[in-house]
User: Fold this.
Amino acid sequence: MASRTGTLKLLVLSVLNVVLVAPGLAGAAAIDLTRHIGQYSNRADESPLDVESFFGVAGPARLIVSGASGDATVVIQLNAVDVPVPGGVTATTRQEIPVVLAGRNALTVTVDGSPDAAVSVRVKQVADIQLHVLSRVHFNTNVADFAAARAFYGKLGFETLTGFPDTNTQAMARAIGVVTPTSYDGSQGEEAGGYLLHGELVGVGGFKGGLIDLIEFTTPKNDA
Assistant:
């Protein structure tokens, strides 16, 4: 059976913070939005599957299934309708399947196969968004190796402007899409079951230049 292992949804994985201004200063733009993302694994205890909900716009979308480890057979239901995933999934395969979303959607994922079988499931949808954007403030960028990413941006001239707390409460974790309680034991501060990460705000030319949040999550960890 499947279990979610640290879903980091759109709010965490791909956030573009912007300054909002009065309507009419910027037109609509077609943006390929991630409506849902999660990782699911084979589990022997056969506990009941979680039905996950997410928002969308009624109309066409794509469901993307990628292998994370092992060989898997995946059964997916979206809004109580089976979504065929032909041929199974391996650690090196990726399938993109057309689907239709509603305003509010329900998703279940079952993974069978080798004991280490795990897959990533992402739902994407193109939508016209009225941005009203004057300028970008900063990009939030999650990385698998903070030290390597920080060294790379350092060579480009980015300096550390500030840090932020490595730990936080379960309520804050849920607010950014992390499933709680996590395996974090609370030994480094804040509440057990929350998240553990390290991040810095880096930039060129101080806060008036381009800014990037570099963040590596330790708990939950997702190298993808």
Q: What stands out?
A: Residues 1-25 have pLDDT under 50 and may be disordered. Helices lie at 10-13, 146-155, 170-175. The longest strand covers residues 28-41. The radius of gyration is 19 Å.
